[in-house]
Amino acid sequence: MAYVTLYRKWRPQTFEEVIGQDFVVKTISNAIKSNSLSHAYLFAGPRGTGKTSMARILAKAVNCAVGPTPQPDNTCDSCRAITEGISLDVIEIDAASNRGIDDIRELRDKVAFSPAESRKKVYIIDEVHMLTTEAFNALLKTLEEPPDHVVFVLATTEPQKVPKTILSRCQRFDFRRVDVAELRALLERIAEAEGLQVEPGCMRLIARYAHGSVRDALVSLDQLAAFTGDAIKLADCTSLLQMVETELLLRLGDLVSAADVTGAFRLVQELVESGKDLQQFVRDAVDHFRLLFLLQNLEDGREFAELEEETYELLHQQAHSLDPRRTLRFIDLLNQAGNEMKGADSPRIPLEMTVARMCRPELDSGPGSLDSRVERLEGILEGMQRGSGQPPPQRLAAEKAGRSEPAEKEWGSAPPEVAAEVSVAEAAQETTEQAPAVPPQAQPRIDIETVKRGWTQVMERVKKKKRTTHALLQEGIPAALNGPKLLLKFHPRTAFHASEILKPAHAEVIT
Predict the structure, then answer these.
(1) CB–CB of 154/41 below 8 Å?
(2) How far is Cα 190 from Cα 208, in angstroms, rounded to an integer?
(3) The whole model's pTM is what?
(4) What CA–CA distance (Å, rounded) separates 259 from 249?
(5) What sign has the CA pseudo-torsion 174, 51, 126, 68?
């Protein structure tokens, strides 16, 4: 028996099997129950969202032997003929290849004939926006005065191209993209039924890659099953779909947050050397910063993130290390880069220029970069007001050159207003226990100056242990050592970091 692709094998055969289009299903089901079906429908929406499948189910519903019924039995001769595509009374026309006036005149001539073996003749015209103006005019007369035994279903991905005269004679239903959660659940059911062994996380990636298209998701699953031999691993999924790992996107966020142009260029170099699709990277980066912006504006963004808890926490930390205005600007810059890369001989160049602008706002001549530059200057002015009144000459020079100075220089000589105390007693005790016995008078004195001198090494070790702790700690300055407690100072604009750093998971790393 010939192999049947998954999207054909699992095409919905009843209204209950259609996912993501509850409004359409409920409205048409109620119309069938009340015997108030329209003579013409327009199904509009993105590809792969179920428009033609819904049209076929509608044809079954009106012609089923036990109907008209919103629950066709799929066992009668009429239902089976429609499922197999051999019904004489369900006529599917591809307007992309049958778009001329002669094709529509032929349709108009046949409409008058009664159904051969069913209650109603159903004409499904796919991609109807492709018809010529003359063909639309010829179709208009039929839609105005159709015979009682005919139902038209017009399907299109571009409803704006359909003439208003046609639209006004149809009941319109807009199909939406299926969300990741629904698509993921469907893929998991199909994989289980097909006996596929799938590594955790794969279905979420496939669902994201499909962008709401059920057909695209099933085609990807089919392709992965053929490639991996029924045992789909996450690495294979990421590689075959050319998706960018979350780790790379988090790195990009960290680099632009730290204004690390060199690190950002190295990341692009890694992408090129590993054969990543740079345009796909940009698309994924747009999704990444969009998600960060949502998390910046929502108390709990888990329903939008659709991520494992650990990944969600990493995104949550990164979201609150960026100013929302910068996040929005990053999205604009990446969208521009995506457009520039389409026609570029080397897509690497627009990407490198974009990450440079993301790291250093002064390189960005666009109006959206003004907020970032103003924000940095406001920080300097606040420090001047709280401090002695005059910033050091080297800081002014650095500002003119566009270089970022350490936070304590930008804040001025007065301490910031937000503080956090982290216990270092355990660390001190552990050091004492491991060290050889030393006379009390010879014990090395650990004071705040010692801590400040070694702070770079502390930060490096923290980064190796927990990157999110490192991101939070970057905004703090060691200010005082009060017995067993280290006092860290934070700028008022990073009060979130001060509160987060006290959570056990981060405090233990610093200790």
Answers:
(1) yes
(2) 17
(3) 0.61
(4) 15
(5) negative
